[in-house]
Structures are given as C-alpha cells and as structure tokens.
C-alpha cells in the first residue's frame, strides 16, 4: 500500500482536471491510502516577493501542502496547460513551498543543491486545448520540462510517466470518458 497524493492543479473549481483527479483518487483509494488536494480550494498569496532572501511565513494551506508532500510516496499532478505552461496559482504554490531546506538544500562548495525529497515518485497528467503532438514537438513541451526537470528532478522526485489529453476543448463525451477510464486504469496499477 502506497501513500498517494493527487494534486488537481487547475485553479478552477469545476474542470476536466477535477474530473480526472476525482477518477484517479476513487480508483487508487481501493488499494492505497490517498489524499487529494484541489488547488482551487487553497487560499494563499502566490507571490514569493522576497525570493529566498527572507523567509516568509506560510499560510495554513501552504503548511498543509508541505505536510502532504512529505507524507506522500507517490505524487500525481493533474494540470492544464495555460499559456504554454503551468497555471499561475499552481506555479505560486510551488514557488512558495518548494523552498530551501524543504525541497532542496544549498551545500557550501557544491555547484548543485542537495535533493531533499528523494524516495518519492510522480506521474503527470496534462490537459491541453491543442493537439498534444503539436504542443510537444512544435511548441517545445515547456510544461513537461518545467515540471519534470526544473521542479521534480531538482528536488529528488522521480517522474515515472507523463500522459497528455487534448484537445479538451471541443472533445466529445465519449472521448472524455475514454480519458477518464485511462486514468482510472493507471490508478489501479500504482506500484
């Protein structure tokens, strides 16, 4: 049994990402301990105004998010692509919580920080209003590079898989049901 954190990174309270997160959580909860976090329900200032120069106090929702990340063994991120990358509220959540001495630690005399979230793995589900092929190969796949390399790898979380769904806009009910089924099936295969 794994400790699974499902993050719905869409700041809208009702979205296809929410449906995907709910489907994943429902299936995974049959065999694992699962907690779901919907960014739309969180209240916090998204701006890291002082960078890392001065520690800012964390709002309760940010403290809770850090607790969930430390608790989790498997982290599922379900996010839309907005303007080519992450929604601002989700990026703000990462900016405010994946801080030095939580996600990484600077080490004197070393070029690269120590990764503090080792031992965890992730999977990504990305929704788009454009065809995935076009986004990945012609637009540069910025969201994947940002999440996998600049955030997850940097802090020690190993990404196991990335799945794209799109275009969501204009998709049929049947297509969405197939996508939800794929997510449920994957949730039943966590190892």
Automatic annotation (TrEMBL):
**Oxidoreductase among keywords:** yes
- Where does the Flavodoxin-like fold domain start and stop, copy by copy? 2-172
Entry keyword Oxidoreductase:
yes
**GO-annotated molecular function:** NAD(P)H dehydrogenase (quinone) activity
Q: Known InterPro entries for this protein?
A: Flavodoxin_fold, Flavoprotein-like_sf, NAD(P)H_dehydrogenase_qn
Q: Where is the signal peptide?
A: none
Task: Write down the PANTHER family for this protein, in alphabetical order.
Answer: NAD P H OXIDOREDUCTASE-RELATED, NAD(P)H DEHYDROGENASE [QUINONE] 1 ISOFORM 1
Which family does the record claim for this protein? Belongs to the NAD(P)H dehydrogenase (quinone) family.
Report the protein name in the record. Flavodoxin family protein
* Species of provenance: Motilimonas pumila
Q: What is the lineage of its organism?
A: Bacteria, Pseudomonadati, Pseudomonadota, Gammaproteobacteria, Alteromonadales
């Amino acid at each position: 049994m794994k400790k699974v954190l499902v993050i719905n990174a869409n700041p809208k309270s009702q979205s296809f990402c929410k449906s995907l997160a709910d489907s994943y959580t429902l299936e995974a909860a049959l065999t694992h301990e699962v907690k779901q976090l919907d960014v739309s329900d969180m209240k916090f200032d998204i701006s890291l105004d002082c960078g890392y120069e001065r520690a800012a106090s964390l709002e309760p929702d940010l403290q809770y998010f850090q607790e969930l990340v430390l608790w989790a063994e498997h982290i599922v991120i379900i996010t839309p692509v907005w303007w080519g990358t992450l929604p601002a509220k989700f990026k703000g959540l990462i900016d405010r919580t994946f801080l030095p001495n939580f996600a990484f630690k600077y080490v004197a005399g070393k070029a690269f920080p120590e990764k503090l979230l080792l031992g965890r793995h992730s999977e990504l589900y990305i929704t788009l209003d454009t065809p995935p092929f076009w986004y990945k190969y012609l637009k540069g796949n910025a969201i994947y590079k940002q999440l996998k390399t600049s955030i997850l790898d940097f802090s020690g979380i190993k990404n196991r898989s990335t799945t794209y769904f799109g275009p969501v806009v204009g998709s049929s009910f049947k297509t969405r049901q197939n996508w939800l089924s794929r997510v449920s099936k994957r949730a039943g295969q966590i190892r």
